[in-house]
Amino acid sequence: MAQYVGSLDQGTTSTRFMVFDRRGRVVSSYQEEHRQIFPRPGWVEHDADEIWQRSQLVIDESLERGGLRASDLAAVGITNQRETVVVWEAATGKPIHHAIVWQDTRTAGLCDQLAAQGGPDRFRSKTGLPLATYFSGPKVSWLLDHIEGARARAEAGELLFGTMDSWELWNLTGGPAGGRHLTDVTNASRTLLMNLATLDWDDGLLRAIGVPRAMLPEIRPSSGLYGHAFGALDGVPVAGILGDQQAALFGQVCFDVGEAKNTYGTGCFMLLNTGSVPVYSENGLLTTVGYQVEGQPPVYALEGSIAIAGALVQWLRDNLGIIESALEVEALARTVDDNGGVYFVPAFSGLFAPHWRSDARGIIAGLTRYATKGHLARAALEATAYQTREVLEAMNLDSGVDLTSLKVDGGMVFNELLMQFQADQVGVPVMRPVVAETTALGSAYAAGLAVGYWDGFDDLRANWGLEQEWRPSTTATARDELYRQWKKAVNRTLDWA
Fold this sequence. Notes:
The chain is α+β, with helices and mostly antiparallel strands. Helices cover 33% and strands 23% of the residues. It has 16 helices and 23 strands. The protein has helices at residues 48-65, 108-115, 124-127, 136-146, 150-155, 164-172, 185-188, 203-209, 244-251, 310-320, 329-333, 373-399, 416-426, 438-450, 457-463, 476-492; strands spanning 4-10, 14-20, 26-33, 45-46, 73-80, 85-89, 99-100, 159-163, 182-184, 194-195, 200-201, 218-220, 223-228, 237-243, 260-264, 268-275, 286-291, 299-306, 343-345, 363-365, 406-409, 430-433, 466-470. A seven-stranded mixed β-sheet has the order 17-18-16-15-21-22-23. It has a six-stranded mixed β-sheet with strand order 3-2-1-5-14-13, with helices on both faces. A two-stranded antiparallel sheet has the order 4-7. A hairpin with an 8-residue loop joins strand 13 and strand 14. The radius of gyration is 21 Å and the shape is globular.
């Protein structure tokens, strides 16, 4: 009898396979990093074949380490880095180019051209999104225009497009031998190609951005049967797909209007459940699909997207070499009592919410001879907290609701210095659940619901437990002065590129 549910979590820097029990506790997990490819400044790519190889490896290893077989799993879900695109040959499964990653800025010119005919909010009424390099559709159009013969082949149905969920699903369910070419509403809502009202690809958007319908996956609800797996998971139903941030919303059981979560990963992403009617932002946030259970209406969310959070710690490690592992950053930051007047704005890919400025570039401000690598480490951690405060203030304005607490998850939430500083900056308690890796848990929940492993939302709510809470410990005057200096540094990043 199947006792567990699995989740294939394909992230920006790594892929892992996690197995959960009925209480939402981790039974087994294995993770592998993949290469980050930077062909030019502002360009970020992944090798999609490498990611699929890593995916097979982590599935095999996780099952082996847990002493599990495919028959022990009731279902498997997929969650993924959103907006990263792959175009591949339908007949062979061979990608025509490296995957273009969500952080990539090469489509700035195309986005400017599209905005010239209606401004950066030209498509917002249909998609909930501004025109920005972040989103998938222009990346696909770029590939079709820059790979010889690709556009004609796409129009002929020879090429398939997908975000990473579709790439994983297609390979998991057979690849060239009948793989299922599908996506879910959350990933589709990040392409600039899907109409939020119809939950289908929009012909006007497809024409404007230049993406042939023939290459697109079919859009499905987040929780529902997608097909059955081959390989190590042979016969297991693939029954849930959610983009990583919506998966974290689901894993944090934010099923009621007004509930919000913030995920600290490569980037940082805050989502607020706004219910069955989309709320359009006037303060730089995104309107997106939060999730959809098969047979039920979609649930929408407001989102604040921050491009660089944990990736800044990786930059300190890989580019500057001032730490040897990401875990060392907290100890280094604790060697100083404050930031020493140093502010770090990591606009490596421009600024996302609430600014949406692709012309911004990263800056370290306030340097003096007093500054040490400890101050740099502290400024890097504080940058994530300041960016989160910017998003939270925008969310309060759009929703009309002041949040009374903030649920957090992701790898950085084990950094206690950051979590305390975050509570100080937002002025409300910050709450970490027992299972902090809620992205994988959310897709497992979606898959388990679809096959009846869990009965409903009340089952999932009962699994949520508080592990640690941080309460504000500073004055409003002190927090606001730090934030004022941060905003001053942000202004220095603009009009650079």
